[in-house]
Specification:
Elements (H helix, E strand, L loop, with lengths): L10 H11 L6 E8 L2 E11 L5 H14 L11 H9 L5 E4 L2 H9 L3 E5 L5 E4 L29 H11 L5 E8 L5 E8 L5 H12 L9 H8 L11 E3 L2 H8 L4 E5 L5 E4 L17 H30 L7 H10 L7 H21 L2 H21 L5 H15 L5 H18 L1 H17 L1 E2 L2 E2 L44
Antiparallel strand pairs: 1-2, 2-4, 3-5, 4-5, 6-7, 7-9, 8-10, 9-10, 11-12
Helix pairs in contact: 5-8, 9-13, 9-14, 11-12, 11-13, 11-14, 14-15
Length: about 500
């Protein structure tokens, strides 16, 4: 649209040029002003009304230009720059003749000053966006930790990170992505700690993204991840600035997308699914117990339905006799086989869970709880399902809530294990576990093994995996990730 266009030295021609570019835009304002002491100084202010800080424009730009006594401008010298610096009180002023840059900046909330006799535009940063206040992320709550979460404005998110890491080694780099949206994307890392190979690999993958719009961080995840068809994430995400700061100090890289209140972190390894911010704000004994519970719940949520189906269908001799008699008695009159009964109830459970999320907050939890109680009791009374399977599904669902970030992978694994157990019994379940382990061992995140430290027997490697070790014991950063500088403590060997 702006190719082969250039500014001229005539103000009226430049105004017509911008009106031609924005001929269908009704929210673009053009205001021509003159200095009351020197009528030769004519200036046009171009801005987008809805994105403008009107107080700043009136007090710091328009009034000084109109009411300050000015001499004739020598636009071929540095006098204009000195004049702008002395009468316009804003943080950012830039002279440019690049039409594309002027248009992009204008649509992002900056104002343009056009001077009569100057073939350049003056970009002034005076954008003003309405943003929500900083609050605690609803999906990552802590009892003792900070109550701050990212917001949609990238500049605020950067300030939240810099406030926690006041170091010149914290490097932020910026990239504009999306030919139409021109979304600002920033990635940051700790110089001297980060693995340079990972930084270069990230820059290489970002440079290959050619799309017309970047509206969410998930688009970037799917465009740069190692294994897009795997149900497991190889790029992490968090809404907490303190989590991002901790990961940066381990040698990871964080990616921020303007307009999205989540930071992406790379590399991401399997053990991070089971780490919670709360672990680092409570006693390490209690944190280690909680983390162990999460690992156990992961096993329960993917395995309990499959084991129930295999035992009830193929291996009844493995069930204690009193329990077996109770299950057989409960299943009397139930028309469905165990595998269909299990899949049906899991499907109903996922409907109730999704309904609880999508309903308004005031009634969502009530609908899900009441719905589960009524449907479960009615189904058992009508002999559509047996009572034991209701207990199994309840244990499965509650266990899955403890590691909600693994929700997608859990649903897929749980279903596959049920199908394999329904046709092959326990052998099918064991075969499924073997395939799962092989898949996890084959994954990488930007060259870092996905099961990093999970298979190690060295105490130093296990310090923040299955348990949360005391702070005084965690002397080294994760190997490979913080390869350049593994030592956390100063002068520590």
């Amino acid at each position: 649209m702006v190719e082969n266009m250039a500014l001229s030295r005539k103000l009226d021609d430049n105004i017509e040029l911008f009106k031609k570019i924005f001929k269908k835009h009704e929210d673009i304002n053009y205001r021509v002003i003159e200095n009351i002491y020197n009528k030769k100084i004519r200036i046009c202010l171009i801005s987008v009304e809805s994105m403008l800080d009107k107080v700043l424009i009136n007090d710091n730009i328009l009034k000084p230009i109109i009411f300050t006594k000015l001499e004739d401008l020598n636009l071929s010298s540095n006098k204009l720059d000195k004049l702008l610096d002395s009468i316009i009180s804003t943080n950012e002023i830039e002279r440019t003749s690049d039409i594309d840059k002027l248009v992009t900046s204008l649509l992002y909330g900056d104002a343009i000053l056009l001077f009569d006799g100057l073939d350049e535009g003056i970009l002034i940063s005076c954008k003003h966006f309405e943003i929500r206040s900083i609050s605690e992320p609803s999906s990552e709550r802590t009892i003792k930790g900070p109550k701050e979460g990212f917001v949609e404005l990238i500049s605020v998110n950067i300030s939240l990170i810099r406030r926690r890491i006041s170091s010149p080694n914290l490097i932020f780099k910026f990239k504009e992505m999306g030919t139409e949206t021109k979304t600002t994307v920033s990635y940051c890392y700790m110089e001297g700690i980060v693995n340079d190979k990972i930084v270069k690999e990230l820059e290489n993958r970002l440079s290959k993204i050619e799309v017309d719009a970047i509206l969410t961080a998930q688009q970037i995840v799917e465009l740069i991840c190692d294994r897009p068809y795997s149900p497991f994430d190889t790029i992490g995400s968090t809404e907490r600035p303190d989590s991002v700061a901790g990961k940066l100090l381990e040698g990871r890289i964080a990616i921020l997308v303007d307009g999205f209140p989540v930071a992406l972190t790379i590399p991401f390894v399997f053990q991070e699914y089971f780490q919670a911010s709360e672990d680092y704000y409570v006693n390490y004994y209690f944190a280690s117990v909680n983390r162990a519970i999460r690992y156990i719940c992961f096993f329960l949520t993917i395995s309990t339905p499959a084991l129930y189906v295999s035992l009830v269908t193929f291996h009844r001799e493995m069930i204690p006799t009193p329990l077996l008699l109770s299950i057989i008695s409960a299943r009397q009159g139930v028309p469905l086989p165990a595998i269909l009964e299990t899949i049906l109830l899991l499907f109903v459970f996922e409907i109730l869970r999704e309904a609880g999320v999508r309903f308004p907050e005031q009634i969502g939890s009530a609908v899900s709880i009441v719905g589960a109680l009524i449907i479960g009791e009615a189904a058992v009374t009508a002999k559509l399902v047996s009572a034991p399977i209701v207990i199994v599904i309840a244990l499965t669902g509650i266990s899955g809530f403890l590691i909600f970030s693994l929700k997608g992978a859990i649903i897929i694994l749980r279903t596959l294990f049920i199908l394999m157990s329904g046709f092959l019994g326990v052998y099918g379940y064991i075969f499924g576990i073997i395939l799962l382990v092989l898949h996890l061992m084959s994954l990488e995140s930007f060259g870092v093994p996905y099961m990093l430290n999970m298979t190690s027997i060295r105490k130093q490697d296990l310090k923040d995996t299955l348990i949360r070790a005391p702070w005084w014991y965690m002397k080294l950063r994760p190997n490979i990730i913080g390869k350049k500088n593994l030592t956390r403590k100063k002068n520590e060997k």
